[in-house]
Each structure stands twice: as C-alpha cells, then as structure tokens.
Amino acid sequence: MTRRRIQFVRLREVAGHENSFSLISLSPDHMGFGLGRHACPGRFFAANEVNIALCHVLFQYEFKLAEGATPQATRSGIRMQTDISAKVMVRRRQENIVAKL
C-alpha cells in the first residue's frame, strides 16, 4: 500500500471515525468532491463506477513487470510519481466462465 493509503486506513481505525475517511466522505481534510452545499451529488455514482472499472480490468487482464524492470518512484515535494519508463507486460486472461442459456 502507498503511504497515503496507509494514512487513511490508520485514520479509520480511530474509535468513532470508522466511516469518516472514505472516498465519498466530506471533510475539510479531503475535499476531492467539494464540501457542504457545493459537494458533488454524483460522488456515490463516481465511486461505484471506479470500482466497476477496476474490477473489470483486474478480472480481464494479468499484469507483470517486464524481466529486469526495477521501477523507481520520484518525489517532488509531497507528491510522488511513478516511473513512466517502467515496462509492464499485460495479457488478457483466458475466459474460464461458461454462460448457460
């Protein structure tokens, strides 16, 4: 897990804050979807769409670093960026579900 993701997991472990630091929650600490009256009403839909897209990609494809690839993340202030020159091998999975009509 990334450091940022671990930070939010730890914040949710505090008693009384189990539901406070999720993707769709609103707070001054994380205003990805706005705050108060101007909060995005589609944030629930957006979160579900991201989950569906991620599940589709993970079920349909296999990912692996290319042989000898050692990607290095670069830091720029508080921001981290992945190595865009890293080679990743992607292969479509074989269908193993048979649909019965």
Compact summary:
The chain has 101 residues and is of the alpha+beta class. Helices cover 28% and strands 16% of the residues.
Textual characterization of the structure:
There is one protein chain. This protein is an alpha+beta fold. The protein has two helices and four strands; from the N terminus they run H-H-E-E-E-E. It has helices at residues 3-12, 43-60; strands at residues 61-65, 74-76, 79-81, 88-92. The strands form two sheets. It has a two-stranded antiparallel sheet. A hairpin with a 2-residue loop joins strand 2 and strand 3. The N and C termini lie far apart (41 Å). The model has no long low-confidence stretch (mean pLDDT 82).
Which percent range fits the helix content? 25-40%
| Strand arrangement across the biggest beta sheet | 1-4
Number of helices, where a helix is a run of at least 4 consecutive DSSP H or I residues: 2
Q: Could you tell me the number of beta strands?
A: 4
Cofactor: heme
Family: Belongs to the cytochrome P450 family.
Keywords: Heme, Iron, Metal-binding, Monooxygenase, Oxidoreductase
GO molecular function: heme binding; iron ion binding; monooxygenase activity; oxidoreductase activity, acting on paired donors, with incorporation or reduction of molecular oxygen
What features would you highlight for this structure?
single chain, 101 residues, alpha+beta, two-stranded antiparallel ribbon, two-stranded antiparallel sheet, 2 helices, 4 strands, extended
